[in-house]
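Collaborator request log, item 7. Partner lab (contact: R.S.) asked for a structural prediction of Sodium symporter small subunit domain-containing protein to inform their binding assays.
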Amino acid sequence: MQLTQKHQEYWNKNLKITAILLGLWFVVTFVVAWFARELSFSFFGWPFSFYMGAQGALIVYVWIIWYYARYMNNLDNEYGVEEGEE
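Returned to partner:
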């Protein structure tokens, strides 16, 4: 099946946002944890490394999911492929 130009644009935008959010996920999950010992300043009374591991990363994960869902809903509406309510 040949994809039209419109399908290609939709797919490229989907891949781009997925790559950006996956990069953000990688940074929050691995880079911050890797340098956690160097993050020795206090954040709301807790060491920043503890806060990022216990709370901050979870907040970022929820934000990533929310943003991706919102972005894809808008992209679906823009390209006319949204799911209708039955």
